[in-house]
Amino acid sequence: MSQTYSALPNDTVRAANDIDYAYRDTGGHDGVAPLVLLQHFRGNLDYWDPALVDALAVSRRVITFDNAGVGNSTGRTADTVEQMAKDALAFISALGLSQVDLLGFSIGSFVAQEVALRRPGLVRRLVLASSAPKGAAGMHGWAPAVIGAVGTPQTSPEQHLGVFFAPSAASQQAGKEALGRMYARSDDRDAMTDWATREAQYDAVCAWGIPNHAELERVSALQMPVFVANGDSDPMILPRYSYLLAGLIPQAQLKIYQDAAHGFLFQHHAAFAADVVQFLS
Q1: Helix-strand-coil percent breakdown of the chain, rounded to 5?
Q2: In whole angstroms, what is the distance from residue 53 CA to residue 34 CA?
Q3: 280 pLDDT tier (thresholds 50, 70, 90)
């Protein structure tokens, strides 16, 4: 990669669904399936930790994007995971990609599951960070303290740190450093997500989490290798859902990162990137 993630330009591609998707592309590594990243609740291009993307981009072409209606992408934010997956597939097709690896984080991991189920031939390997299967009991919305921290019109860095990082001094310091890296870019930043995106995405989260034992069987159809990961103190998507998800997928590997919460992949960016690169290789 010739540029760090913080310096990459914002590009746009028009898809067959008439949506203009905003994205960033590290480029390079021809002949290897690119790694497409799917973002968390209310996140945009600037909410990926540059340290994580840069570490992944040493050996992979990494592509981040705003799904329909998010950030600088046009259209309306879908209110179901299923439609988000269709929109993500339209973006991947617009880039002319015939096979990809996917890394989905939080709600992005729900979308990644759906993409892999709908288009199994497209997805070579799948990484699910801070994830849960559809229909898992207890996932119908987030705890009041969590949605109160990240789901209000105005959120603070302190609230973000309280959900994305564990209470320990070490984890909180790692969180402050991660936020510093995310906000280091001053020019050409992505548009902040709006309230309509928050409402639509939370509707999708709640629908995904309606308890339904039969829905849990869906992920058993995933035949590609899958890496499931989470922090041991995640208050948003509890670690027990990672164990459940990994147990339902035939070729799943599981790792729980210690003294970490929802944003474990930013706190442990070097270790997580090394684990992902090894898995994808």
Answers
A1: 40, 15, 45
A2: 13
A3: very high
Tell me the sheet residues that pair with 24: 64
Give 277: exposed, middle or buried? Use CB within 10 Å, 0-12, 13-18, 19+.
Answer: middle
Q: According to the model, what pLDDT value does residue 207 have?
A: 97
Indicate if the pLDDT at residue 268 is higher than 60. Answer: yes
Q: How far apart are CA 247 and CA 159, in angstroms?
A: 32
> Which residues are bridge partners to 242 per DSSP?
none
**Phi and psi for 82 in degrees, rounded to 5?**
-60, -45
Cα gap 84→258, rounded to integer Å:
31
Domain of residue 120, CATH code: 3.40.50.1820
DSSP state of 220: G
Domain that holds residue 25: 5-280
pLDDT in tens, 9-18: 999 999 999 9
47-50 contacts: CB < 8 A, separation 24 or more? 47/182, 48/5, 48/182, 49/178, 49/181, 49/182, 49/265, 49/266, 49/269, 50/4, 50/5, 50/6, 50/181, 50/182, 50/184, 50/185
Which tokens hold the place of 179? 């936020």
Helix pair angle (169-182, 50-57), 10° resolution: 80
- Of the CA atoms within 13 Å of residue 64, those in its CB half-sphere come to 27
Give me the number of domains the chain comprises.
Answer: 1
What digits encode the pLDDT tens for the residues 39-61?
999 999 999 999 999 999 999 99
